[in-house]
# Entry
Amino acid sequence: MKKSFNSIEELVTLITERRKELGISQTELAKLCDLSVNGISKFESNAGDRELKLSTLFKIRQTLGFKLLIELEE
Amino acid sequence: MKKSFNSIEELVTLITERRKELGISQTELAKLCDLSVNGISKFESNAGDRELKLSTLFKIRQTLGFKLLIELEE
DNA sequence: TCATATTTCTCCCTATGGGGAGATTCTATC
DNA sequence: GATAGAATCTCCCCATAGGGAGAAATATGA
# Structure
């Protein structure tokens, strides 16, 4: 499944869905990717005020096993 | 052109190349996407210490016109 | 060479992402 | 209802992304 995302909201939603699909709790995810439950809860919840550093996204990416792509027109 | 990126380094390199392809200076890009030249210079240069907020990535994405995709296996 | 534009840098500042610890609320399951 | 796990929240803290202003260093061109 490949999807483009145009906002942090969208991206975070995809990440959360993915985590649940894999049956992983925030606590487990935190341990697996060297983050704190606090941090994960902060960006998964708190609608509207979600913000992420790219390094955090990469940590999660590795653990949840998805790819990030950039598509340049032409 | 579609490419996956596995690190901030890679992503930033792609962004910089894209900017140059379009013949846009850091100063112009800064104005176009409501960032400061300072900020842009900071992540484009300073190899190794690059870090980005997702919101910044989205601003640049819109201006340079590329898409971001997430690919979930299965 | 000289002039101009571009990029990178320094300092200082503010805003905020993410951590720790602990309390509270949701959600199941019995 | 009770107990347990998960998720969210509050405080407080630290590290740092990004801004402003300006200087220095690197192209680029006449």
Notes: Residues 25-27, 37-38, 40-42, 44-46, 53 of chain A lie near DNA strand D (CB under 10 Å from a C1').
